[in-house]
Please model this.
Amino acid sequence: MLPRMRAPAIWQSFRSVLLNPLHGLAWLHASVFCAAAPVDFVRDVQPIFREHCLACHGPEKQKSEYRLDRREVAMKGGESGEAAIVPGKSSESPLLHFVTGEDADMLMPPKKSDQARLSAAQIATLRSWIDEGAGWPESASAKVQDPRDWWSLRPIVRPAVPGKGAGNPIDAFLETKLAEKGLRPAASADASTLVRRMYFDLTGLPPQPAEVAAFVAESTRDPRLALGTLTDRLLASPAFGEKWARHWLDLARYGETHGYDKDKPRLNAWPYRDYVIRGFNDDKPYDRFVQEQIAGDALFPGTRDGVLGLGFLAAGPWDIIAHSEVGEAKVDGRIAKHLDRDEMISAVFNVFTSTTVQCAQCHHHKFDPVKMEDYYRLHAVFAAVDRADRVYAGLPPAQERERNAVLRRANALKDERDQLDASLKRAVAARTSGLDRRIADLKEKHGSPLRPQYGWHSAISPAQDAVKWVQVDLGAARSVDQVRLIAAFDTYNDIGAGFGFPLRYRVEAAEDAEFKTHVRLLRDATGADQPNPKQREIAVDVGREPVRFIRVTATKLAPRKTDFIFALGELEAIGGEEQANRARGAAVTALDSIEAAPRWGRANLTDGVFHRELGEPTALAELRQLEDERAAIEAQMRTPETTARLKSIDEELPKLTKQLAAFPEGQLVYAAATDFSARGRFIATAGKPREIHLLKRGDIRAPGDVMRPGMPALWPGAAMEYPLPTADPERAARAALARAIASRDDPLLWRTMANRLWQWTFGRPLAGTPNDFGHMGLQPTHPELLDWLAAELRDDPRHSLKSIIRLLVTSEAYRRSSAHDVAAVALDADNAFLWRANRRRLTAEEYRDSVLAVSGALRVEERGGPSFQDFVIEKPQNSPHYEYQLHDPADAASHRRSIYRLVVRSQPQPFLTALDCADPSLSVPARDESTTALQALVQWNNRLVEVMSRRLAERLDREAQSPADKVHLACQLALGRAPQAAERAALLDHLQTHGAASLARVIFNLNAFVYVD
Model:
């Protein structure tokens, strides 16, 4: 993802396109065609015909006997007999006159048509195409006629296995293709190479020397049996799910912060990660895996995985400012909500069906059979869904519904109170503007007493009637005439004077700290709400009897936005002939306390640091008189009805708070949700779908028809609209979509996952664009093999992923060497037909985990649970700064597998980013694999590598005696084999010259360590 500081620019770009998409589209076309590249009919012209013309001049309808799906008719013209397109002469081509409006009587599309007019850029494309000769390949007509006649959309028919069908079917398909291309397969890799390959491909970790030795020995006796046994053991290992879940989380755009400007952490995202790991380890049936991630709460109510799976929908970035601070009442908030649904929809169809439905947001899909109506039907499916923390365990469904109802009521009351307070403030401000100016002038002239007055601050309470206390120990019984309370004041966020002063309280004195003996009530203000003293002191008479302990107890706390507190700026105990403050520097204790220097802390309460007066006593008296006048006006403005309503709210909220506290807390996951606690202007729908309109040209301010839930009819039998019950239509819509996508009849689902399984095993997919099986995606190199695998996955009663993986890794093709062959390279340099194994670089996570494992530091048994942090957060209250350089790489808590790392969007981990880690804000179907100087630098100089090099050196010193033994052990641990002669000599010389830690850094930078053969 781009750095956080650029997020507003990205947002403005999205906003600009949504508010004025024609401008954005024209810019796009201008940028493309300014390059003077020849116009391609299939890429550039055919989509224009499909979007604007074929409804009336296509295969289903031919007005004026004219159609634009067949070349011969398009060129010749319709019933008029006049040629509509004159190649090389756009000015003489009637088609261009019709779409430009030069012929007013024949304007196309007609004004009464639902079809949108062509943009200036589209007209320029048609003009250039005609002037360049109106090239139209014969094969293109068939595409226009039926866009569903495409390899990925056709029903899956299991192909026959070539040859006699003996052995692994994978090899039968591949070897037939190799023979067709005149290629000979490479020989099998040696056993030590193969075992290392399998460990990394199936678990993401290097094998231990003993595991390599055992496999090599077993392979000598029976290679096939050894391979099958190892495969079963690795598939059963918990490390399998940790490795393969990483593939899925790349697709699912999984991150543990929100992204955008305020990239705050999602502390409850990790349960979805653990759900994915468990799903792969348990070999969860693939159709169930899919359904849980789209509509698990609707299809499998009461199950924890039915809720955990919904973390998929919520895994992507989320704009906290647009949702919580702007809200849906404003255009920018509605745009954010639209983009949020678009992100969910895109993820569902890109990941599960390799279909780019998001391209139909502003116009019909230019290449695939997805119309705008289809796209907005999907918005209607997700119209009630947001992203939030929700309970997945520890709270039965009936109790969860009851708790959510109480929570909604409490949030509604808080919103009402905020609105009443805001209304009162506006009314008071209108009446006191003159007074406010005089007060401000007085403060400016004489200096303001309202400088920050810090003090003591209780812990935050969800209930207003919680009791909080703070007390001062004078050290001995002393004569005190008066206790003075000074309220806190803070300029932060315009908190103002009187911050946290309780509405009801009492002041007491006692001889003991527990207030059990000789307790005296000095002031009782618990019977009714007290006015906020703001900067006024509150004086409490004590009398001449000595006191030691003074306690202030709040019985009704001061409200904040959604919780309650007790704060005091200063407590004085005035006594003696000199009327000194006997409490200055005295010890302070409290029921609880927030210690956040310099603002808040127990010591602040008696430090004697506060500001009492203006520059002149007369000015202070005048200021207080003006403020009294203002307070009187405020009291007059508070109508009996408002006062009664506020009192009613304040009485009901504590009861609701108690009700909420009675429910089990439950375990939370950040997932798709319709019931959750409000956050500012981010309000739950409680399952009531928002009204979704088709947006003309994608403009949020140009709503069209109201849309019903549905999806594109991408395959025969796929329903475009869903008949929904009146009760719980939101869950019913998602359930219908999940059933449709995960159905046996969906050819995209099974082909997509079969392609991914091949990619994650062999390193490259059979169809080279894993998230796009449409007309602009790459077609498979082995279509019959892909369909056979898809049919195998579909027809398996358990839809088992492990069964397909086992089939793949036990094939002869998987066992091939990655050795170079000059003759084969001449025919297939890219190895598209798999005559050899693909050598690959370790992924970022594999490299990090391997460094930890080889050094002996990896805490492999610590699985699941909250993520570890390899950074220090600074300024967490607003926009957190994730400072990786402040983290100690020797901290054992971070020595877990990389999949358990807290993934930040705005500030990626620099070390892993240099090694091509996936961008968590995007669905990443295939990792980049680069080779750069920066990688060599971080692999040598990164602090984690430095620390682990010392750890490996210590391990070598413990487990090996001679220098030669240390070199041998280092290679066995890191490379899975003994060093070759040249390696042994060079490494031994380095060890003896520079030491074991430097040897370890060399080992961690060897190609034999960084790459998997």
